[in-house]
Amino acid sequence: MFGKIIFFISLIISTVHIAFGQQNPSNMYVDSIGQVYVKTDVPAYFFVAPADNNATKYIIPTNDARTNPMIFEDNGLHYIQTTDATNKPVTFKIFADGIAPKISIKFKKGLLMSSGKRFYVDEGSIAELIAKDNYSGVQNIFVSVDGSEFTPTKIVSFEKVSDYQVKAYAIDNVGNVSDTVSYRVITAVNAIVKINNIYFDINSNRLRPESKEELNEFVQVLNEYPEIKIEIRAHTDSQGDSQYNLQLSERRAEAVVEYLIQRGIYNNRLSFKGFGDTMLVNECTKGVDCSDEKHQENRRVEFRILPMK
After folding, report:
1. Which residues of 231-248 are buried (b: 16+ CB within 10 A; e: fewer)?
2. Model confidence pLDDT, tens digit, residues 172-201
């Protein structure tokens, strides 16, 4: 007699390539209370064995060859029924999981404000990557910071003033891999942060239409965090007279502030300053032959979150 039935699963799977050269995870998982999970759409053979002879496995019989191996196409709970040596029916529950984990990020320390997947934080802030999986559970979370190799971790610290690029993905216990999620984390108090895609007409402080989409997103951030005060800073390239460039950058910084005020941001939260060509970010100083793309790097608008009292 079989006595107590022990359930075994032997998976026959096609090759699954996981990014970053990691070994293929198992597509079967048994949790701490004995619940069995398999990945959806993966062929699997099922066996039973007597309690006193685990090495002897018997394939669950079937009259339909197409069901051996079995494939579960739908997520959720399924049942397999067979008989023991006494012809007594034995039923097993199988949870099929074809849904990858969902990833989010939560700051445990130092968050100032956020918008979507962009976060402004204090130096020394700490974030936790969180993955949730409704079926087999999360096996691991992998994180890359500023292009580094993905490593298994959940906690990321942001110790220096920088504009961090954080990427993360998760794997569940049957091998479903989530999409890679990207976050931008800016240690922003007293740090200078570029506002991307802010353009002006040549020798003018008139904002181009394509600049307004980025500024409208910035307005949303400022509305979400009314206690934040910022300084808008504008820069020019080195071409032309330096005194003219200084005045032009001042007018451009003021134009950005006026746009924010027109969108409902109180003027007591905003200040501005022009720097002309005094703070170039590349080698394109006066007299150096540079492409317009290189000069564009210097024609930029930035902001600084002012310390809160």
Report:
1. bbbbbbbbeeeeeebbeb
2. 999 999 999 999 998 866 667 788 888 887
Q: Are 43 and 138 found together in one domain?
A: no
pLDDT band, very low/low/confident/very high, at 35 (cuts 50, 70, 90): confident
| Among candidate residues 45, 73, 97, the one where a domain is terminated | 97
Structure-token match 């012809």, residue found: 87
Residue count (the chain): 309
- Which residue from 55, 54, 8 is spatially nearest to 28, judged by alpha carbons? 8
Q: Look up residue 220 and give its two tokens.
A: 């949303």
Torsion-angle region of 135 (φ positive above 0: left; ψ -120 to 50: alpha; else: beta): alpha
Range(s) of the domain holding residue 175: 102-187
Residue from 19, 33, 166, 196 nearest 103 by CA: 166
Q: Indicate if 134 and 163 belong to the same structural domain.
A: yes
Percent of the chain with pLDDT over 70: 81
Q: Give yes or no: residues 106 and 91 share one domain.
A: no
